[in-house]
Amino acid sequence: MSNAFSLDGKVCLVTGGTRGIGRSIALALAKNGADVAITFASSVEAAAEVKAEIEALGRKALTFQADAVDFEQAENVIKSITEELGKLDVLVNNAGITRDNLIMRMSQEQWDEVINTNLKSVFNYSKAAIRPLMRQRNGVIINISSVVGLSGNAGQTNYSASKAGLIGFTKSLAKELSSRNIRVNAIAPGYIKTEMTGKLPEDVLKKIEAEIPLGHAGETDDISNGVVFLSSDAARYITGETIRIDGGMAM
Ligand code: NDP
C-alpha cells in the first residue's frame, strides 16, 4: 500500500539548512526518503555535518555556501541541483535573521538586512525554482514565516514586516501556480528553541513561555514534521495556507 506521507524519490532544497529549524527540516526530509540540498551563509563545518548525516540516512546531499539575498547565487544553486540530482520537487525557504530594535533606534541597515534576508531571498529562490517546478507540472514551495508576522511584536517591525510579507507572497504565488499543480504554503512557527531565540534574555523567555497555551517552547522537529506533511502527497489539496505551529500562541 502506498504511503501518502512518503517523500521517496523527491529532491528538496532547504535554504539556511545548517542550524536550528532548517537543519531539522533537512534531516526530516531525508529521513522520509528525499535527497536534500541545503544552503547556508557562513557555517561551513555545520554544513558538512548535515551533509554527512543526510548521507548516513542513505540519501544524496548537496551543500551550497550562497547568500540568499543574491539572485544570481540562487539561480546557480537551482541549476546545480537540477544538474546533479536531476530535478527539484520541494523548495523550503527557511533562511532568516533578526536584527531587533525599537523603531526609534532601528537603523536603515537593520531594516534592509532583515527585509532582504527574510523576504527578498524568498523571491530569489522561488523565481529561480519556478522553471524546473513548472516543467514537471508538480512541486511544492514552503515559506517559513512566523507568528510575529501574524500578531506583531514590539522591537521587531523589520522582522514582522518581512514575515507578514511572506504570507501575502505565499497566497499570491499559490494563485499564480495552482494551474501548474504547484502548491505554495507557509508555516508560522511560534517560539522554537534555536540559536536565534537563544539570544533572548532568560526573563523574556519565561514571559513568552507563560503566554503559550501549551505551556512550553516548541522543538525544531515540531516545525520539520509540518514541513514533511506539506511536502508530501498527503497535503495535495492544501495551497495558499499558513499553518501556525506555535502551541496556540497566536490563536
Ligand atoms: P538560526 O539562526 O538557528 O539559523 C538560520 C539559518 O539561516 C542558518 O542556517 C544560517 O546559515 C542561514 N542564513 C542566515 N542568513 C543567511 C543568508 N543571508 N543566506 C543564506 N543563509 C542564511 O534560525 P532558526 O532556525 O531559529 O530560524 C529558521 C527560520 O525560522 C527563520 O526564517 C526564522 O525567522 C524562522 N522562525 C524561527 C523561530 C524560532 O523561534 N526560532 C520562530 C518563528 C520563525 P549560517 O549557519 O551559515 O549562518
Question: Which structural category fits the helices and strands?
Answer: alpha/beta
State the end-to-end CA separation: 37 Å
Low-confidence parts lasting 5 or more residues at pLDDT below 50? none
Strand content: 5-15%
Task: Please provide the ordered H/E string of secondary-structure elements.
Answer: EHEHEHEHEHHEHHHE
Which ions and ligands are bound to the chains?
Answer: NADPH dihydro-nicotinamide-adenine-dinucleotide phosphate
- Mean pLDDT across the residues is 97
Oligomer: single chain
Numbering strands along the chain, what is their spatial order in the largest sheet? 3-2-1-4-5-6-7
Our Rg estimate from Cα atoms comes to 17 Å
The amount of helix comes to: 40-55%
Give the helix tally.
Answer: 9
The beta-strand count equals 7
Name the descriptors.
251 residues, seven-stranded parallel sheet, 9 helices, 15% strand, binds NADPH dihydro-nicotinamide-adenine-dinucleotide phosphate
Give an overview in words.
With 251 residues, the chain is of the alpha/beta class. Helices cover 47% and strands 15% of the residues. It contains nine helices and seven strands. It has helices spanning 20-31, 44-56, 71-85, 108-135, 148-151, 157-177, 195-198, 202-210, 220-231; strands spanning 11-14, 35-40, 61-65, 90-93, 139-144, 182-189, 242-245. The protein has a seven-stranded parallel beta sheet, with helices on both faces. α4 links the parallel β4 (90-93) and β5. α1 (20-31) packs across α9, α3 runs parallel beside α4 and α4 (108-135) runs parallel beside α6 (157-177). The longest helix is centred in the middle third of the chain and has 28 residues, at 108-135. It starts with 10 loop residues before the first strand and ends in a 6-residue tail after the last strand. The model has no long low-confidence stretch (mean pLDDT 97). Residues 15-22, 39-43, 46, 67-69, 94-97, 117, 144, 146, 189, 191-192, 194-197 line the site of NADPH dihydro-nicotinamide-adenine-dinucleotide phosphate. NADPH dihydro-nicotinamide-adenine-dinucleotide phosphate binds at residues 15-22, 39-43, 46, 67-69, 94-97, 117, 144, 146, 189, 191-192, 194-197.
